[in-house]
Write a structure and sequence with these properties.
The protein is α/β, with parallel strands linked by helices. Helix content is 42%, strand content 15%. It has 4 domains: 1-36, no CATH class; 39-215, 3-Layer(aba) Sandwich (Rossmann fold), CATH 3.40.50; 230-383, Rossmann fold, CATH 3.40.50.1220; 400-596, Thiamin diphosphate (ThDP)-binding fold, Pyr/PP domains (Rossmann fold), CATH 3.40.50.970. It contains 25 helices and 19 strands. The strands form 4 sheets. It has a 6-stranded parallel beta sheet with strand order 3-2-4-5-7-6, sandwiched between helices. The chain has a 6-stranded parallel beta sheet with strand order 15-14-16-17-19-18, sandwiched between helices. It has a 5-stranded parallel beta sheet with strand order 10-9-11-12-13, with helices on both faces. α5 (86-100) runs parallel beside α6, α5 packs across α20 (461-472) and α18 (407-420) packs parallel to α24.
């Protein structure tokens, strides 16, 4: 614990040394004085509370009033990763939470810095990533009277509706409680984002060091197991047994649970085909014989019983209804979720299984006995035939080598590099860049793919990439659309500053979706068009990293292989045919103008 020693004066100290320990007590008794106690302050109490709870990294942007906190935390052995924008520090904290099952910590300044971190905090909550946004703030007595303090803002009130929980600490003796409550809130039940407000005056408050130490809390079992009810497990197994066309859908919650061995055993022992959502890819290798990813539309439309493991029936699964799922009455759902209120959120759940994923999967696995029958051969054969057909079609497309690279020819290179480096973490965002990468690039290990998630938010790229490199120590390959890269591109300086093993591939087609739109009135370029032939690689060169232009698959392969092997920060400007891509990628139906055109 960091402390400040308070002197009682040279004369007094000389006298005490002369008297010795035995007479020191008598001196204070006779003179009615008390010895000064060792002191600590708010800065050190925050740091000590975090370290006590095994927090070893903070993602931050220094400034008033938290600059000294970042310095002191670094000096105390906490790794400080300092960003150029708070949103990206927040995204890094959220990704770190997903990867480690510990709350990622983002530290920001007050008001504008706090607001910059809110998008990441809300995105973490939406995606169930444990994260704590800690922000300095103005003093309560000034904020409440609206007297115009520096960066005055009622941050707690703003944060509350956007995250799982929000707390403010006003007194140094409550720092331990505040941090403990934030950690438990972020991790317990369905994980999420938490806001912790620390007014500037808190940091300079002092108290006796020993009392401060006693005020800190080591959080015990913040995410306790929640065992599913035996009758609920039986109901789910009975429904699966009676299914003619069963399907398992694995969501990112299944990846977060880190119950990898049991999930794989459940899939293989049951014999049921499975469909991984994008961040669940790699829980089982995408090349696994039971993977139905290559025939997604068919299995969703035809399945009669679907078991959701860490997945929600939100827009990514068409809310469990509509044309995607065939007739409304034809599909019955089993849903594993730690939150009972998630059940029936869109359609009836025939077999709700409430509990943590690890416990639920273990219970299901234990209920599959020697008499378990694999799914009907007709169902498996129908999937296999369509899967083979679609994979052959994809292979033929990937084998083409157009004069100017398109998404398929470029991603065929990425696919091969990832296959050769399965430990690498793939970060992916964009519209077409996201959609094509998700379906083309196979993953082989769990939690090796990070992308835009439930919100479909742009700008996660560099923050996620930094967190992946820091938490895993493995190579990171960030596949970025040129538009998506623009949201966080300045963080290439952060990547170079910390010399992180990140290879960024910018798919440069000169614009959003395409680079071919034209302003019918002349003058300014169309809103979706960027500077033609932009030199993105020079951004990385400017900060001492490696910048490369790739015009062909061979050039792209060489650059990526060298980047992964060297571990040096690298940006590859991959020149893509500007006519490649479609409006809004695969969510054209959500674009009113494009949807109207289709009609």
């Amino acid at each position: 614990m960091g402390r400040s020693q308070v002197s009682t004066g040279q004369n007094c100290m000389a006298l005490l040394i002369h008297l010795g320990q035995s007479q020191t007590k008598r001196y204070f008794h006779m003179t009615n004085e008390t010895p000064e106690q060792e002191q600590t302050d708010g800065f050190n109490l925050v740091i000590d509370a975090l370290k006590l709870n095994d927090i070893d990294t903070i993602y931050a942007l220094p400034g008033i009033p938290i600059t000294d906190l970042t310095r002191k935390a670094q000096a105390a052995g906490i790794r400080m990763i300092s960003f150029r924008h708070e949103q990206h520090a927040g995204n890094a904290a959220a990704a770190a939470g997903f990867l480690t099952q510990k709350p990622g910590i983002c530290l920001t300044v007050s008001a504008p810095g706090f607001l910059n971190g809110l998008t990441a905090l809300t995105n973490a909550t939406t995606n169930c990533f444990p994260m704590i946004l800690i922000s300095g703030s103005s003093e309560r007595e000034i904020v409440d009277l609206q007297q115009g303090d520096y960066e005055e803002m009622d941050q707690l009130a703003i944060a509350k509706p956007l995250c799982k929980a929000a707390f403010r600490v006003l007194h140094a003796e409550d720092i331990g409680v505040g941090i403990a409550r934030a950690i438990r809130s972020a991790l317990s039940g369905r994980p999420g984002g938490v806001y912790l407000d620390l007014p500037a005056k808190l940091f300079s408050q002092t108290m006796e060091a020993e009392a401060g130490k006693r005020s800190l809390i080591k959080v015990i079992d913040p995410a306790p197991r929640q065992i599913p009810a035996a009758d609920a497990v039986k109901r789910a197994l009975d429904l699966l047994k009676g299914a003619k066309r069963p399907l398992i859908v694995l969501g990112k919650g299944a990846a977060y649970a880190q119950a990898d061995a049991d999930i794989r055993a459940l899939v293989e022992k049951s014999g049921i085909p499975y469909l991984p959502m994008s961040m669940a890819k790699g829980l089982l290798p995408d090349t696994h014989e039971q993977s139905a990813a290559a025939t997604r539309s068919y299995v969703l439309a035809e399945a009669d019983v679907v078991m959701l493991v860490g997945a929600r029936l939100n827009w990514l699964l068409s809310h469990g209804k509509g044309k995607t799922w065939g007739t409304p009455s034809s599909t019955k759902f089993i849903q594993i979720d730690i939150s009972p209120t998630e059940m029936d959120s869109n359609v009836p759940i025939s077999a709700p299984l409430v509990g943590d994923i690890g416990s639920c999967v273990s219970a299901l696995l234990g209920g599959i006995g020697s008499d378990w029958a694999k799914p009907p051969a007709e169902w498996l054969q129908a999937i296999g035939e369509r899967k083979d057909k679609n994979m052959a079609k994809m292979a033929a497309t990937l084998a083409l080598n157009p004069a100017i690279m398109n998404f398929h020819s470029a991603l065929n290179v990425v696919r091969n590099v990832v296959k050769a480096n399965p430990e690498a973490v793939v970060v992916n965002e964009g519209a077409n860049t996201l959609d094509f990468t998700r379906s083309i690039v196979d993953m082989y290990l769990p939690r090796k793919r990070l992308d835009v998630g439930t919100w479909g938010i742009m700008g996660i790229g560099m923050g996620f990439a930094v967190a992946a490199a820091v938490t895993t120590g493995k190579p990171v390959i960030a596949i970025e659309g040129d538009s998506a890269f623009g949201f966080s591109g300045m963080e290439v300086e952060t990547i170079c500053r910390y010399n992180l093993p990140i290879c960024i591939v910018v798919f440069n087609n000169n614009g959003i979706y395409k680079g071919t739109d034209v302003n019918p009135l002349g003058g300014d370029v169309a809103p979706t068009v960027f500077v033609k032939n932009a030199r993105y690689e020079m951004m990385m060169q400017a900060f001492g990293g490696v910048g490369v232009v790739a015009n062909t698959p061979a050039e792209l392969a060489k650059a990526m292989e060298e980047a992964v092997a060297s571990g040096r920060p690298t940006l590859i400007n991959a020149i893509i045919d500007e006519t490649a891509g479609t409006e809004s990628g695969r969510i054209t139906s959500l674009n009113p103008q494009s949807a109207a055109k289709k009609k």
